[in-house]
Amino acid sequence: MCCILLGITAVSRAQGGGGGGRPPMSPADQAARLKTSLALTDDQTAKITAIYAAQAKSNDSLTAAGVTDRAARQPIRAAATAKIKAVLTPDQAAEFDKQQAAMRQRGGGGGAGGGGGTPPPPQR
Q1: Of 26, 47, 112, 122, which has fewest CB within 10 angstroms of its CB?
Q2: How deeply is 116 buried, as exposed, middle or buried, from its count of CB atoms within 10 A (0-12, 13-18, 19+)?
Q3: Over 90: is that where the pLDDT of 101 sits?
Q4: 19 vs 47, more confident
Q5: pLDDT tens digits, 6-45
Q6: What is the Cα 14 distance to its own chain's centre?
Q7: Average of pLDDT values for 64-87?
Q8: 115 burial class (0-12, 13-18, 19+ CB within 10 angstroms)?
Q9: Mean pLDDT of all residues in the chain?
Q10: What is the C-alpha separation between 48 and 34, in angstroms, rounded?
C-alpha cells in the first residue's frame, strides 16, 4: 500500500499537483501577478495572459498524453519566458529575471509562471 501511495504522490507532483495543496495559477492570475510586480500596461498584460494560456494548453496536451517528465516541459517554459521578455521593457525584463532567479532559489520552479506566491508555512 505504501509503495502505491508513494507512486501516486510522485506522479501527482510531477504533473504539478504538489505545491502544498495549491491548485496551479490560471493564466489570468499569473499575468495579474506580473502586472502588479512589474507595473505592466493593460496591453502587456493581455499579451502575457495569451502567452500563459498557450503554455497551459501545451502543458495540458503533454499531461493528456501521459507525459509526466518535467524535462519535457522545460522547452515550453523556456519559449514562454522568451515571449514574455519580448513584451517587456528592458527594466521590466531585468526585474522579471530577478524574480525568476529568486523563485528558482526557493525551489518554486523556473521559467514563466512557475510557482508563484510565497511558499506554504512549515508544518508543525
Answers
A1: 122
A2: middle
A3: yes
A4: 47
A5: 555 555 555 454 445 567 889 999 999 999 999 999 999 9
A6: 13
A7: 94
A8: buried
A9: 81
A10: 9
Torsion from C-alpha of 59, 62, 63, 68, nearest 10 degrees: -100
* Separation of CA 68 from chain center: 15
Backbone angles phi, psi at 20, to 5 degrees: 75, 25
Q: Residue 34: its pLDDT value, please?
A: 95
- Taking alpha carbons only, the member of 29, 41, 55, 27 closest to residue 92 is 41
CA distance 44 to 110: 21
